[in-house]
Amino acid sequence: MLLLYAVRMVRTGIERSYGASFQRVMTGQRSYTQASMVGLTMAIVLQSSAAVALLSSGFAASGMLGFSTGLAIVLGGDLGSALIIQILSFKLDWLVPLLLAIGGYLFVKTEAKKARQLGRILMGVAFILISLRFLREAMDPIRDSAFLPAIADYLARDYITAFLVGGALAFVMHSSVAAILMCVTLVQIGAIPFAAGLSLVLGANFGSAFIPVWLTRGMEIPARRIPYANLALRGSWAVVTLFAANLALRGGLLGDPQGGQMLVNAHLAFNASLLVLALPFCGRLQGLFVRLMPEPMTASAAAQNARPGSVLDMRTLDSPSQSLSSLKRELLRMSDLVEAMFRPMLELYRTGDKEQIRAVREMDEDVNDCLSGIRRYVAAIPADGFGKDNAKIARDLMEYAIRLETAGDVVAKRLAVLAATMRKKGASFSKEGWQELIEMHESIMANLKLASNVLISDDLESARLLSLEKTEIKRAERDSRKRHLKRLQHGTTESFETSDIHLETLRAFREFNSHIAAVAYPILYRNGQLLETRLIEDMPQVEDSETEVKG
Q: To bridge 36 with a disulfide, which of 76, 101, 242, 497 should be the other Cys (CB 3.0-4.6 Å)?
């Protein structure tokens, strides 16, 4: 359990620090080889190939990532997961005190978001190393028991059962890293023979491919094709390797391999060979899986693009719970519209497409209609029988609707205007300035999703995180402004041409994010996590020298 928690802790820390950049990294146009290297790197960073598969599936569902590129990323993620095993299999116990000391200090004593999450990551790595030592120590008494040799010999003889046990272990633990590390530890201490460990590891590779298939079962068909293709490729290669390796071991063709490191090498070889063999077929498999997993015939393009109407129902006003649920659903619809307005903004800065700008402004009218409907709905709530607390929640929700409408105005009346100005001038940002805007845009997109989660769940921890993210956006805006002014001092031509637009965009981004984050305030206030004012209440009395003279 400590190993599972530690792996999750590392992944959570990285996602909270750099999650907003994953979309840009994963959805960029690249070759299959480049895509696989991206998947490999992200699997090492996230400590999980399943996390890479889920991200790829999510981007495929939204149309931002193609099947073949997504499959290449997932295959690279499988090899990255194997490299994690290699790194963690080294004797690194001496690092534990150092990682705990530095990580603990950063997480407890610092306020900056990235520094705190770096502390979380370092402590997670330390906990992984501690859990591996616990595993080795816990297995020592079992190694000398009379029961284990019988089980180990049976698994060595019946490699199909060992394969199935390894697959079940990886699926139940929901982590191939944790499952394979456990198998490597068993072989290292001599608790099971190498042959049994190899079958278990191959089974764990097969079982881990089921994890993203299971986790994406409720997603759209385009999202599910990539995990199923990965399962077909990885599962087929695991079965072929299982029979070939065991025949070779029994025939003495591989000699007498021993030890945990040899098992790690076999795991690496399996995933590297899978990547080399399967990568050229990523494009060819698309047609096959489109035929095997077609989209429902009833879903027409018009139905997909149609905007849902208002969900507010005046007949539910007598039921406080149903009324508040209706308000939240309408706010979610409103939030989705605002997100759809904001998402293409940076692309419009480059293209200045008049049709897209007009579409953004039309969506702003829909946002305004949402606010009008919410106002009428809240005004119609009966004063008697609704309850003071429920009425307060309804007012808070209407306040957030006003914030969302203002955020829509920021996009339609400021950012869209700036995009049109960029097109008229034919100007462009400096490379550094454009990268700063991209990173800020990505962070705000992540905050939009977090705000929707806070609206639905009323979760205090998520509300606190959203509030912290607001502070991070303020810091990013301030730092970008300072760097922009430095570029002006150094005479960067692009910075001079787009100075006003760059600074106004930064202000608009910050204001937009502030409106989005407002959903967290009522929750923080109810839980005593929000101050009424940031002013110091008890100011020290400063004596006025002139008053003393008059006195």
A: 76
CA atoms of 82 and 78, how far apart (whole Å): 7
- Residue 469 has a CB neighbour count (10 Å cut-off) of 23
Q: 74 with 230: CB under 8 angstroms?
A: yes
Q: What secondary structure, in 3-state letters, does 313-354 show?
A: CHHHCCCHHHHHHHHHHHHHHHHHHHHHHHCCHHHHHHHCCH
- What is the rounded distance in angstroms from the CA atom of residue 268 to the CA atom of residue 85? 9
What averages of pLDDT result for each successive group of 10 residues across the chain (551 residues)? 76 67 59 85 76 77 76 90 81 83 89 81 84 70 63 78 88 78 81 86 91 82 88 93 89 76 90 91 85 64 50 76 86 90 85 84 90 88 79 88 93 90 80 84 87 87 87 88 83 69 90 92 83 59 46 43
**108 token code pair:** 């407890």
Distances (CA, A) of 216 to 66, 209, 211: 17, 12, 9
**DSSP letters for 373-419:** HHHHHHHTS-SSSS-HHHHHHHHHHHHHHHHHHHHHHHIIIIIHHHH
Q: Is there a contact between 456 and 516 (Cβ–Cβ < 8 Å)?
A: no
pLDDT digits (tens, 9 = 90+) for 352-389: 788 888 888 888 998 998 899 888 888 888 877 777 88
Going from the C-alpha of 218 to that of each of 288, 355, 446, the distances in angstroms are 21, 34, 22
| Class (C level, CATH) for 320-526 | mainly alpha
pTM confidence score: 0.58
Query: Which among 45, 44, 47, 65 is positioned nearest to 55, based on CA atoms?
Result: 65
CA neighbor of 70 nearest in space, from 398, 292, 380, 289: 289
Q: Which two tokens stand for residue 449?
A: 């999703």
Cβ atoms < 10 Å from Cβ of 383: 7
H-only helix segments in 258-299: 260-278, 285-292
Return d(Cα 551, Cα 531) in angstroms, integer.
Answer: 39
- 551 vs 278: CA distance, rounded Å: 91
